[in-house]
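pls ignore typos typing on phone
coenzyme A + seq
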Amino acid sequence: MVEIRYAREEDCPRIGAVNAAAYATGLFLANAFPQATPDERAEYMHFRAMQTLLDPSVCTLVAIEVETNTIVAVAQWRGIFSEERQSIVLSDEGTAFVKREFSLEPRNQDVINAFRALVQAKRERYLGDEIVLDQLCTHPQYQGRGIGATMLQWGINKADEMQKDIYLEATAAARSLYSRLGWEMLEKAVLDYGLYGGEGVDKVYFMRRPHTR
Ligand SMILES: CC(C)(COP(=O)(O)OP(=O)(O)OC[C@H]1O[C@@H](n2cnc3c(N)ncnc32)[C@H](O)[C@@H]1OP(=O)(O)O)[C@@H](O)C(=O)NCCC(=O)NCCS
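k done
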């Protein structure tokens, strides 16, 4: 059984680990940070999770496996506001952690820029006042048990209450899950890492879920 709650500062190391593990076999990270070890990726994702906690327009949710009190999945929603979310204040240690310079090197900046430009161009084209799902990942050991769908249902309920649609960029792995829960395809794009000195091709799907209330 899983329970969903807003993320806290002390969750961020595990959020980084879940994120790095979920994307470990993905082409983007392999091309963007070709020499990074799994631990280095997890540390970088920990840093990014802390930065996101401080962004008032995004709320991070975690799914906890109740029996083991372990974080097993993470979702980041842009545009869902709540009292709980607004009260996050980092400790002095956490503040120092997010303020330091932290860049994962070496990196293929052309790959990172190409991915960002693609996402940005489509958001400019399609985004109005939708809620945006910036991130969803389940630790590989816990995938296929309905946890991703439970995380999505949390956001769907909020979006329907607010009478707002939900926009997202989907990986090939997640596309059928989103379709099943009501997302419609806006556009498909191909990201050819070979054009930027990398290897392989990713498909990216741009999708929107109309609100149902
Ligand atoms: C996509 C993801 C979040 C789904 O999480 P989950 O907890 O396994 O989700 P659920 O159990 O509710 O649903 C599983 C669905 O994902 C698909 N899936 C993708 N990868 C899977 C895997 N390794 N194991 C099982 N199912 C997987 C299944 O086909 C299933 O779709 P369906 O219900 O339409 O058949 C998870 O696979 C993941 O973290 N993937 C890597 C990161 C990623 O691609 N995130 C999506 C960004 S848009």
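The chain has one domain: 2-209. The longest strand covers residues 70-78. more later
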